[in-house]
Design goal:
- This is Secondary thiamine-phosphate synthase enzyme.
- Belongs to the UPF0047 family.
- The protein is of the alpha+beta class.
- It has a single domain, classed as Jelly Rolls, CATH 2.60.120.460.
- It has a 5-stranded antiparallel beta sheet, covered by helices on one side.
- Strand 5 and strand 6 form a beta hairpin.
């Protein structure tokens, strides 16, 4: 298993991690298989979405903030219950196909760490499944 850190700068944001993941694939010489990535935090998640227009990431953060506001009468007293719910909705892990040494994504897609309770230093774990 490989681990790397992502530093976030705002309470809620999407941070591109596609490049860091591809660098890991390149450094390890992985060619054909699957890369499982996992975020071991209860208030951060991983997603694949459009990476061509930064407004998409901003819209995703804004939409989830409207759906799950920070203050909404949650019973959890730490003040980050909305972050826990957002993480559950988005999910902590992804499985990415690697072929020819390249992470296979659609034309406009990228991989993002979703920060819901930052700023923080977040870890991403990566496990290779392949030859």
């Amino acid at each position: 298993m490989e681990t790397f850190e992502v530093h976030t700068t705002r309470r809620e944001e999407l941070v591109r991690v596609t490049g860091a993941l591809q660098e890991l694939v390149d450094a390890k010489g992985w060619r054909e298989g699957a890369l499982v990535v996992y975020c071991p935090h209860t208030t951060a998640a991983l997603t694949v979405n459009e990476d061509a227009d930064p407004d998409v990431a901003a819209d995703l953060v804004a939409a989830l903030s409207r759906l799950l506001p920070r203050e909404a009468g949650y019973k959890h007293v730490e003040g980050n219950s909305d972050a826990h719910v957002k993480t559950t909705l988005v999910g902590p892990s992804l499985t990415l196909i690697v072929s020819g040494g390249r992470i296979q994504l659609g034309t406009w897609q990228g991989v993002f760490l979703c920060e819901w309770d930052g700023p923080r230093n977040r870890k991403i774990w990566a496990q290779w499944l392949g030859q």
